[in-house]
Amino acid sequence: MNETFDILIIGGGINGAGIVRDASGRNLKACLVEKNTVGSATSSWSTKLIHGGLRYLENYEFRLVRDSLKEREVIKRIASDITTPLPFIIPYQKSLRPKWLIKLGLFLYDNLGGKMTIPKSSTINIKKEIPNILKDQYNTGFQYYDLQIDDKKLVELNIQDAEKRGATIIENRKVIKAKRNQNVWDIILDDNTVLKTKILINAAGPWINDILNNVIKLESKKSIRLVKGSHIITKSLYKQKRAFTLQNEDNRIIFVIPYKDEYSLIGTTETEVCSPENPKIDDSEIDYLINSVNKYFFKQISKDSVLSSYSGIRPLIEDFKEASKVTRDYIFDLNEDGSQAPLLNIYGGKLTTYRKLAENVLFTLNRYISVDNNKSSWTADHKL
Ligand SMILES: Cc1cc2nc3c(=O)[nH]c(=O)nc-3n(C[C@H](O)[C@H](O)[C@H](O)COP(=O)(O)OP(=O)(O)OC[C@H]3O[C@@H](n4cnc5c(N)ncnc54)[C@H](O)[C@@H]3O)c2cc1C
């Protein structure tokens, strides 16, 4: 390929897919390189929710929750074919969070994002409204709504739309080297193809520092913690189309979510790991998830009930807190000194905020390439 791209993105997860779509809609020459197939890593191993993140309120992350709630509305609009509003029930347990705290959290959750089309929260009588699911001691439940999504499909739809708008998508090719020149990067793939780009974007998710240290050969400024999150899949534990948000003694929460009509998706755990490669659930995580379910549900499950499992890696920005308290927000690290082609590293993020992240990438790069600003938020109005 002889052309020089405006931007080249390493990584075809949701963040890379969102950026390449937004860029191509602004008539930039955009390219994305993915070492496997798009959406095959973290972005298809998630809990599959577009959510404000109710529990982040406990960490005082009001801005992240507000922005995520606003994005939940946008994604409901632009990806209506692959999203479903789903009620979540938090069974009240006296020894854990007090009622007033849960109600305050839900009040904020209902209102922080402004006007919403998703139903507001309510208090329910568990025995009357959803009998024979939870053990007798659970009488009161707090119900709120979030969106369930097909996470992999969300990546694929962004990629398809980007391709339609002229983007170059290269799958099954690994970026092995990046050479920085004055105005342009030479990007070398594992079949020795050399691509040229004015701006390089590192959207490699949990591999972000691997790209920096081994491909670009720049010292990474930010340290990240790789935290594995695992899910198990069982036969449906109940018939209703409702999900449960289960509180645990260690302050963490576990979701039990209806999945593909016949199954329940149960997750997630938080276990620190050293490498992003081939994450797999371990026995202690299976036990943790089984125990959480058995504490609440009439129907008891065991290892034999586990039909399948999957794990993904969160690249959390290191701030030396417990994993559940580390922010799920994203951070940009722009590397440029005016004399060499720019590099933008993207740390963290959530499926929920991918579109806004992509838009902010384009605003950030505005000073290096001429971005069509008449289309400031075009992805919020164009259906996927
Ligand atoms: C267990 C778990 C549950 C989650 N649940 C939710 C949820 O319910 N809702 C929510 O909003 N968020 C959730 N998240 C967060 C969300 O999944 C991630 O923030 C998001 O998927 C990250 O996308 P990404 O594009 O950064 O990374 P990835 O999807 O991992 O994409 C990075 C890509 O880079 C590629 N790559 C790496 N190195 C190279 C190379 N050298 N050359 C070419 N390509 C390369 C990889 O193959 C990979 O496909 C969850 C995360 C986890 C781990």
Describe this structure in words.
- Strands 3, 4, 5, 6, 11, 12, 13, 14, 15 and 16 form a 10-stranded mixed beta sheet that branches. Strands 1, 2, 7, 8, 9, 10, 17 and 18 form an 8-stranded mixed beta sheet that branches.
- The mean pLDDT is 94.
- The radius of gyration is 22 Å and the shape is globular.
- The chain has 384 residues and is an alpha+beta fold.
- Helix content is 25%, strand content 29%.
- It has 2 domains: 4-42 and 152-223 and 328-380, FAD/NAD(P)-binding domain, CATH 3.50.50.60; 88-148 and 224-321, D-Amino Acid Oxidase, subunit A, domain 2 (D-Amino Acid Oxidase, Chain A, domain 2), CATH 3.30.9.10.
- Flavin-adenine dinucleotide (FAD) binds at residues 10-16, 33-36, 40-43, 45-49, 51, 174-175, 203-207, 211, 215, 229, 268, 312-314, 349-352.
Proportion of beta-strand residues: 25-35%
Large-scale geometry: globular
CATH fold type of the largest domain: FAD/NAD(P)-binding domain
Bound ligands, each once: flavin-adenine dinucleotide
Sheet with most strands: 10 strands, mixed
Termini separation comes to: 29 Å
Indicate the low-confidence ranges by residue numbers.
none
Helix content percent band? 10-25%
Q: What's the CATH class label of the largest domain? A: Alpha Beta
Element-level helix/strand string: EHEEHEHEHEHEEEEHEEEEEHEEEH
Give a count of the beta strands, DSSP E runs of length 2 or more.
Answer: 18
What structural class results from the helix and strand content?
alpha+beta
- Rg, rounded, reads 22 Å
- Total separate domains: 2
The CATH H-level homologous superfamily of the largest domain: FAD/NAD(P)-binding domain
CATH architecture call of the largest domain: 3-Layer(bba) Sandwich
SS field, number of helical segments: 8
On the 0 to 100 scale, the average pLDDT is 94
